[in-house]
UniProtKB/TrEMBL annotation:
Record domain Nudix hydrolase: where: 5-136
Name of the protein in question: DNA mismatch repair protein MutT
Gene Ontology cellular component annotations, sorted alphabetically: cytoplasm
Keywords on record: Hydrolase, Magnesium, Metal-binding
Molecular functions (GO terms): hydrolase activity, acting on acid anhydrides, in phosphorus-containing anhydrides; metal ion binding
One Pfam family matching this protein: NUDIX
Family assignment from sequence similarity: Belongs to the Nudix hydrolase family.
Listed cofactors: Mg(2+)
Superkingdom classification of source: Bacteria
Length: 162
């Protein structure tokens, strides 16, 4: 059996149900993946997926969420064929949170935006395609095969569950 190298990541879309806004982070080019994205990042070895999501959300935005309050939405994977590497992202929505947004956040400016405003914001194409699934019923699985991160998808599949 072939050993597969992978990085496990999380992403949390915080949804303010009263205002209808969602929290995104405007990442500068120097941080990689410039534009607006959901908060998230790498899961540490001793963390559960939810614990990693909560930590990344706190580090990037200042908001606190209880892991039990996260709503699991699905997984997406990016398979880089040139590198023989796989990135796997566990996706969550949070509607219960507390705290204040960080000023001078290390990963970029956290900002509340309306769902209507999202269409006009600069963001990575993979995130723009994935974002609607956070607000649909059920969960999702997305698999994208790429030669490398700069290439167009060679193969892409989306599966909705529930």
């Amino acid at each position: 059996m072939q050993k597969i190298e992978a990085t496990l990541l999380t992403m949390v879309i915080v949804h303010n149900e009263k205002s209808g806004e969602i929290l995104l982070v405007n990442r500068p080019s120097k941080r990689g993946f410039p534009g607006y994205l959901g908060p998230g990042g790498k899961i540490e070895l001793t963390e559960s997926f939810a614990e990693g999501a909560v930590r990344e959300l706190r580090e990037e935005t200042g908001l606190l969420v209880n892991p039990e309050d996260l709503i699991y939405k699905g997984v997406d994977e990016y398979i880089l064929l040139d590198e023989g590497y796989r990135y796997i992202v566990f996706n969550y929505v949070a509607t219960k949170y507390e705290g204040n947004l960080l000023e001078n956040a290390p990963e970029g400016e956290p900002r509340w935006v309306s769902k209507e405003e999202v269409a006009d914001l600069p963001m990575q194409s993979w995130f723009r395609r994935r974002l609607p699934y956070f607000f649909q019923e059920g969960t999702f699985e997305i698999s994208i095969h790429l030669k490398n991160f700069e290439s167009s998808p060679l193969k892409e599949s989306v599966r909705k569950i529930g």
